[in-house]
Please model this.
Amino acid sequence: MAKRTVVTMPGDGIGKVVLPEALRVLDKVGFEADYVHADIGWEFWVNEGNALPDRTIKLLEEHRVGLFGAITSKPKDKAAAEISKDLADKGYVYYSPIVGLRQHFNLDVCIRPCRSFPGNPLNFIRRKEDGFDEPVVDVVVFRQNTEGLYAGVEWTDPPDGVRSALATHKKFAKFEDVPGEDLAISTRIFTRTACRRICEEAFKYAKKFGYKSVTICEKPNVIRETSGMMEEEGRKVATRYPDIDLWHTNIDAQMMWLTKNPEDYGVIVAGNMFGDIVSDGFAGLVGGLGFANSANTGVDCAVFEPTHGSAPKYEKLSPSIVNPIAMFLSSCMMLDYLDETDKATAIREAIAEVIADGSVRTYDMLKLRGGPEAIKKGAATTEQMTDAIIERL
Ligand code: NAI
Ligand code: MG
Model:
């Protein structure tokens, strides 16, 4: 097979720590690839007025597969205050580069697996009459990644055209007299194409990996138009998969049931905001940010990333103590995507063995406060965790 080129985007903070560790694991498992580095993140906002430089977009346009660490992102006004002096007041506006990547490459399907590893002390346990049990969680959230509340169509003090368009809806009457500066609007736009695509991808995945159910997790009783469209498309796709059950939950109830019967769910589909919420909820049952992995996939491009951010408080800590497993599991998703499933399985098995063995654990797994003292209390460093996994390979 032709050698792959993977665009590596470490980004900021601990992204720069965990991504190189993932490359060590990928080398060890025998994945043959050329890696090209691409710039992304805060320093490029500060020095160039663009956290996602065009050269990075070009590299991804060429190679179509990216491994991403994490970036630091800040609200618009804070970003404006930190831009370099020569660029200040030149009209630069900060946008999150990862959101930018998702939009530019139409990476509309975000996949977030949440699987518990036996022996992980962070696994959720549940009270029973005679003690506790530990449900096996194996949920894969499909989050619509480009539309909905995160599409960015929003205003404070909306222009007249927007106000008059909204006035055509009778329920807008009660807002009509609100002064512009007191009126903020964020739109939730769903398109049928994107709803259909995420439902199709979810069912395809459920079939390929043997999940019994696909749950559409929205709120159609209240948000009738957008959630309703997702449900409608889900029902249509489901008719082609008679062996897979189609379930429906409301996002609020789903979060309440999260700890009641998490083992009952398989694949879950949701819009952008609810997908973000429900995937963080399930990730919390299986170890949290040190384990939460994801893929942003489009028709012909994909970027793989841990869901955690740049964790600035650990950025300068040397040796680093953060858990690299979320980054490794994201790399496994990349291997699956590239049809290198055997290598992905080997890495996942090595991770499972290290977790089950229990002698090497990062501070989060030991429920310690993060910081240099964690090592003295028995926490493994990032590098030691990587070494332990590599040893099992
Ligand atoms: P964060 O995910 O960076 O960190 C939150 C806390 O989670 C950390 O302080 C740490 O205690 C823990 N944590 C995170 N990753 C860990 C790991 N691998 N191992 C062990 N513990 C870990 O989120 P926070 O603090 O809200 O945001 C920090 C920066 O990251 C912000 O600028 C934010 O905008 C950005 N961010 C970027 C994301 C991305 O690159 N996709 C996603 C989330 C946040
Ligand atoms: Mg989130």
